Amino acid sequence: MKITALLRCLLAGGFVVAASAARSDGAGDPAPVSSTDGQYFDKDGNPTYKIGKDGKVDWYTFIGYRMYGANCLQCHGPDALGSSYAPSLVDSLKSLSTQQVLGTIIGGKRDVTAAQDLVMPSFGENKNVMCYLNPIYTYLRARSDGALGRERPSDHEAKPVDWEKTVDDCFK
Length: 172
What we know:
Helices cover about 40% and strands about 10% of the residues. The protein has about 170 residues and is mainly alpha-helical. The protein has one domain (about 5-170). The strands form two sheets. The protein has a three-stranded antiparallel β-sheet with strand order 1-2-3. Strands 4-5 form a two-stranded antiparallel ribbon. The chain is globular, with a radius of gyration of 15 Å. GO terms for molecular function: electron transfer activity; heme binding; metal ion binding.
């Protein structure tokens, strides 16, 4: 599937965030101000997390945890803390806007210097990442903000009613 068709699919399923100005101070205030089908959004329309006082996380943060483990952990290490192979995403998200993070995941990145050759491959055509893009970002944002610990979330909100259909539609 070409990247434009996949992005259309993601837009239809509510998986791509609304555009907002890129900042170099991270994604800003993570407080949720709205939600749609179990996905929470901050005041700028960026995906965000909701964690109760009892530690119960929203569905997207929980699925993001699982999908990070399936797709990102190999390079970025357990709990997004980095490895000798790839940087800590917990640290990186402190200075990158939502659009910068999603753009890097979708398009990849290459940073070549005389001392190193760092490459983040493009995942724009990998449905195992793209169909879970907002959940992965939501989990990483919660980790970066210090709102979520290193362990698997112990409890989560119920799966949204249309979750399976949305994911199935994305994989078509």
